[in-house]
Amino acid sequence: MRRLLGFLVALVFAAGAAVLTWPSAFGLERTFPLAQVISFRAPLAAALIAATLLMLLFAFIRPVRAMALVLALIFGVSGGINVALLSDRGFGGDLPAKTETSLRVMTWNTAGSATSAESIAKFAVGMQADVVTLPETTIDTGAQVAEMMRDMGQPMWAHHAEYGEYGITGWDATSTTVLIRPTLGDYSVIQSSLDGSSNTSTVPSAVAMPVSGDGPIIVAAHAVAPRQEYMPQWRSDLQWLADQCGTDNVILAGDFNATLDHMTGMGIDGGTLGRCHDAASESGNGGVGTWPTDAPALLGAPIDHVMATPDWTVSGSVVMRSLDGSGSDHRPIVVQLERTAR
Questions:
Q1: What is the 3-state secondary structure (H, E, C) of the chain?
Q2: Nearest CA-CA partner of 161 in 182, 188, 121, 180
Q3: Neighbour tally for 19: CB within 10 Å
Q4: CA distance 236 to 229
Q5: Do the beta carbons of residue 287 and residue 89 sit within 8 Å?
Q6: Contact assessment for residue 49 and residue 79, using Cβ atoms and an 8 Å cutoff
Q7: What is the rounded distance in angstroms from the CA atom of residue 240 to the CA atom of residue 273?
Q8: Are 210 and 190 in contact (CB under 8 A)?
Q9: 25, 75, 144, 270: which has the fewest Cβ within 10 Å?
């Protein structure tokens, strides 16, 4: 009887570890509350490794030795796989020198007025950004940033989409702004982004189409956070974002409120989300947390992304950790892209 009980206990823990490590195998990566837990793979890996060490200590107690060793094996294998997965995505990469053909894309959820226009402008100019997507940023702030960048020698056009009147609601998350360097050509945010007829559900994204030139379609993304009451909207937001990557020459950047684990099965033609590939994971930064800034970057959730269709090749990226005191609870990402040779 004791042996049977021990087997059942080991089976339960093995099943739990498997679900946490490979949630997509069970179709649970976008379900509550597992979606919230797997957002933080690094703390999960640390907890599994700590549990392994604890079980090894219990193995010195003869009556529970066998069970402790079995559990140590389960926790150790699961923890090791999580570490290997994060290592494969990368814990830190650098930007190469920008060339005449490079395109630099920056995204930063600024948490509204928590981040000053001056901070955004200085960072964007310092990073030589050609495209800047700013979830939770009003057009008033975006215009200030564009003017400051112009005065620093790097002019930008400001576009946006919004839901409601942010001046009345007081919630800057109802606005998403995108800045685009004029050398990419003229752009216009499409009507369905402006009127919400085709957009993310609760907080807006902005689809900017080139009116002239051969620049990419730029999608400034903002999916709703996966709180329990918003899970259906969150899932539909991710699908909407994936649909934006169904065509050629698309750059998708912003706050997805989702890690790569949540996007399992949502790619086509080898993409991460639709036909878009995640730039950070392809350049050694996919395991670096972008939220929240009050947690160490290696323990945070990588929920902000820059993605692009195969028309673009990633040459480098950086998750900026030195701006954690700027006011926002998100870290900015800057990615360098090159046109894919044909």
A1: CHHHHHHHHHHHHHHHHHHHHCHHHHCCCCCCCHHHHCCCHHHHHHHHHHHHHHHHHHCCCHHHHHHHHHHHHHHHHHHHHHHHHHHHHCCCCCCCCCCCCCEEEEECCCCHHHCCHHHHHHHHHHCCCCEEEEECCCHHHHHHHHHHHHHCCCCCEEEEEECCCHHHHCCHHHEEEEEECHHHCCEEECHHHHHCCCCCCCCCCEEEEECCCCCCEEEEEECCCCCHHHHHHHHHHHHHHHHHCCCCCEEEEEECCCCHHHHCCCECCCCCEECEEEHHHHCCCCCCCCECCCCCHHHCECCEEEEECCCEEEEEEEECCCCCCCCCCCCCEEEEEEECCC
A2: 188
A3: 17
A4: 13
A5: yes
A6: yes
A7: 10
A8: no
A9: 270
pLDDT digits (tens, 9 = 90+) for 205-239: 999 999 988 899 999 999 999 999 999 999 999 99
Q: Per-residue confidence at 173, pLDDT binned at 50, 70, 90? A: confident
Distances in Å between the Cα of 92 and the Cα atoms of 71, 78, 88, 324 are 32, 23, 11, 16
Confirm if 103 and 131 have CB atoms less than 8 A apart: yes
**Residue 222 contacts residue 178 (beta carbons within 8 Å):** no
Cα(109)–Cα(133) distance, rounded to whole angstroms? 8
Residue 259 near residue 41, CB atoms below 8 Å:
yes
Which residue's entry shows tokens 């494969």? 88
